[in-house]
Design goal:
single chain, alpha+beta, Arc Repressor Mutant, subunit A, D-Maltodextrin-Binding Protein, domain 2, 3 domains, 5-stranded mixed β-sheet, 3-stranded antiparallel β-sheet, globular
Length: 285
């Protein structure tokens, strides 16, 4: 079995349509159909149920889809890591959502640079929840990522748990309230992840989101640190008293044996502990 056969199968399994899968792969449907049939013969099990207007995964196909994704991710990661290892100088790639570091990034980088195991760090700014994919494909070594996220193949430590605030237009009816609830916002705790994913769509950065909020075209929930770090005219932040906290984690590939990555993770935990202690001191005083 080669990687091309797995890529073909994944495309068909995700599209559940040979024509769309062929277009995605840049080939015509007949050779794609023949390749899938050969894969089924090689494995000795049917992977797809086919009819004139219907394609569905068999139980064996469902298993292979999961395993094939892992295998292709591992192959891509091996290629990326090998090429980077052959570069002129070793370095670490730290993936983080722009404006999604809760204020940890600068002190983290400064403190890490002073550790004996430190390597030069390249910060890769990415879209909402893109970090896990970058880690699995070897394009990043470590990441700061907001929970929840797909942890497949990753290890992680939670750094911070922050209360959530609602970002509302100053003209919004709830802006006059000192605090709000999920029910006030017509949200539920179970539906919150999906709501946040829709708001923070790929390609939309914090400045765009805040501009739309100021125009009262939308609202969203942020970690409390955003309210402190990004005040904006026309936008008010109100505590959401019953929202689950926002967790920020440091994550890295499970198979990583890099002492430089381990050192950066330790520094991230130390910096986060300082931030937590300072926030508690501020509350007390």
């Amino acid at each position: 079995m080669d990687s091309r056969a797995l890529r073909y199968f994944v495309a068909v399994a995700e599209e559940l349509n040979f024509t769309r899968a062929a277009g995605r792969l840049g080939i015509s449907p007949p050779p794609l159909s023949r390749a899938i049939a050969k894969l089924e013969r090689d494995l000795g099990v049917p992977l797809l149920e086919r009819s004139t207007h219907h394609v569905a995964l068999t139980p064996a196909g469902t298993v292979l889809l999961t395993e094939a994704r892992h295998t292709l991710d591992a192959l891509e990661a091996a290629i990326h890591r090998t090429r980077r290892a052959g570069g002129p100088a070793p370095k670490l790639v730290l993936a983080v959502k722009a404006d999604g570091d809760a204020g940890l990034l600068e002190p983290l980088l400064a403190r890490y640079a002073a550790t004996p195991a430190a390597l030069p760090v390249t910060v890769r700014l990415c879209a909402w929840h893109e970090q896990p994919r970058l880690l699995r494909t070897g394009e990043a070594d470590v990441a700061l990522v907001h929970e929840p996220y797909d942890r497949t193949g990753l290890d992680a430590e939670t750094l911070l748990l922050e209360p959530r605030v609602a970002a509302l237009a100053a003209t919004h009816p709830l802006a006059a309230s000192a605090r709000v609830t999920l029910a006030d916002l017509e949200l539920t705790a179970d539906g919150l992840p999906g709501f946040l994913d829709r708001v923070r769509a790929p390609g939309r950065d914090l400045a765009q989101v805040l501009a739309l909020i100021a125009l009262d075209e939308m609202f969203t929930l942020f970690p409390a640190s955003v309210a402190t770090r990004y005040p904006r005219p026309g936008v008010v932040y109100r505590p959401v008293v019953d929202a689950p906290p926002s967790g920020l984690a440091v994550a890295w590939p499970q198979r990583s044996r890099s002492t430089a990555v381990a050192a950066l993770v330790r520094v991230a935990e130390e910096v986060a502990a300082v931030v937590v202690q300072e926030s508690r001191t501020t509350v007390v005083t």
